[in-house]
Description:
This protein is an alpha+beta fold. The protein is 38% helix and 12% strand. β7 (120-125) and β8 (128-133) form a beta hairpin.
Amino acid sequence: xxxxxxxxxxxxxxxxxxxxxxxxxxxxxxxxxxxxxxxxxxxxxxxxxxxxxxxxxxxxxxxxxxxxxxxxxxxxxxxxxxxxxxxxxxxxxxxxxxxxxxxxxxxxxxxxxxxxxxxxxxxxxxxxxxxxxxxxxxxxxxxxxxxxxxxxxxxxxxxxxxxxxxxxxxxxxxxxxxxxxxxxxxxxxxxxxxxxxxxxxxxxxxxxxxxxxxxxxxxxxxxxxxxxxxxxxxxxxxxxxxxxxxxxxxxxxxxxxxxxxxxxxxxxxxxxxxxxxxxxxxxxxxxxxxxxxxxxxxxxxxxxxxxxxxxxxxxxxxxxxxxxxxxxxxxxxxxxxxxxxxxxxxxxxxxxxxxxxxxxxxxxxxxxxxxxxxxxxxxxxxxxxxxxxxxxxxxxxxxxxxxxxxxxxxxxxxxxxxxxxxxxxxxxxxxxxxxxxxxxxxxxxxxxxxxxxxxxxxxxxxxxxxxxxxxxxxxxxxxxxxxxxxxxxxxxxxxxxxxxxxxxxxxxxxxxxxxxxxxxxxxxxxxxxxxxxxxxxxxxxxxxxxxxxxxxxxxxxxxxxxxxxxxxxxxxxxxxxxxxxxxxxxxxxxxxxxxxxxxxxxxxxxxxxxxxxxxxxxxxxxxxxxxxxxxxxxxxxxxxxxxxxxxxxxxxxxxxxxxxx
Length: 661
């Protein structure tokens, strides 16, 4: 009755052996579940120097400590493994319905090693785990596979399925894993790991109970937060076409002040992430034209087609991940804009809209619906794919790629027909698509050395669709996190919304009218904010929590109290943050062991503002990112010059001692 199940499942795909392993309570007490448990298991079980696409890599599916306990917005799961994209630690976060299903099968994580001789899938029900032949499924897209497996294993309830599509089967290094017909664990290239193991899917249909320590307290916390979410609404008079004006007004002035994170909830309830489609362009948050443009290149006459109200009109029903009460997702009818090829798609997230929209100067929203669905079905990461296509277009513009190279395609900015055709070639690994299917870093190595100036990445991974020239702390996380280029780890804006200083003794307080320019200085205060972001995000990912609940504020979504109620540990926020520091440090230790030089994860010069943009809202903005990485590392207790965790820090966190359990 401590929130966790106390054991994990191992599947050796080479031998077909399946066995359980108990996990000591001390591991949960020091690493939680989710990403922390994953880091602990993988560090112990992946040999140093393992080929990410070889038999020694371990692919894990991990649930969160709070999932299923009665807490809300704690239904997220992670895929974990050695990343073939970066060569280091890889994890990818997803919502959907898989997280509780892992625990209902009796486990906190399911881990695969080895490589099967033929395609297989794992099925777990009340009779236990069993591998089945998946030869008939290989080549199917993710939605078709999931529908067939649910029908095949339909019992008293709908089972949960995680599966891969064509891109992952063909080992695209920018492929992910699908759950619930298009919720994507997209980052780190872990779909390719699943494909390399010939593992087509996992099908989970268990019936174990998940319990928390203090059910009444969990219920009370849930009711309290539920009331706040219910009452968080904007006036109905606020329309999507007003968002650009709101952005301009909020961006006025040279200072910022503390905010109540609940102000983000009405936006998420009404539109979901797509409110950023138009809100983020006037202030420079949305990258444009392969990170080298601005709203000057993608004016209102173009981006008005991304008005979130237009997208909501297609929404037939809201989509809620397990235990969510916000409902930022949606199911959209798109039969008329896909010529009947697809009837519905998950509402495209902002990241997808911008990756295939402003980043490519593409105003054709119909093409984005289509791209969203083929990416989900093939399990290719939309963020990486959009960045890669923008790289290809710039190469074509500069004459590095020719019409002969592209097999007649005119790879010009905003050419939606060519954008769709190139995406389809990447999925199938056909022609130029084969060269681009592994992301921008690999593509630039294959195409031409001089093209690396257009290959926007951080440590080999394409960055999320938020510009660190607007939010420099985001740039620290792009560059210094063990999984680089991730927009969901931390940002200055997230920190302001969370108000961690109200709970954590060492977290710097955001003062009223703080000068914005202070965020561009490699100071101790900025470093502590970025460290706090990293630590709390590890706690969230160890709990099964959602980023959007986190940024609604820790005084609203009371994560620390939830954890104590679920486990009975009675720890302080500072003690939980120390757990987060331990989790983050172990992930960094994994990278060091695998030969990663942390400075190599530094984000591309272009998105550091080197050289700075010449026009638009971010005109002249430059980030001294190397200096900011150094103060971040130092504040973490890592060597400020190398990013290697110091022995004194490792010893204080008892990491080596815990690895020996």
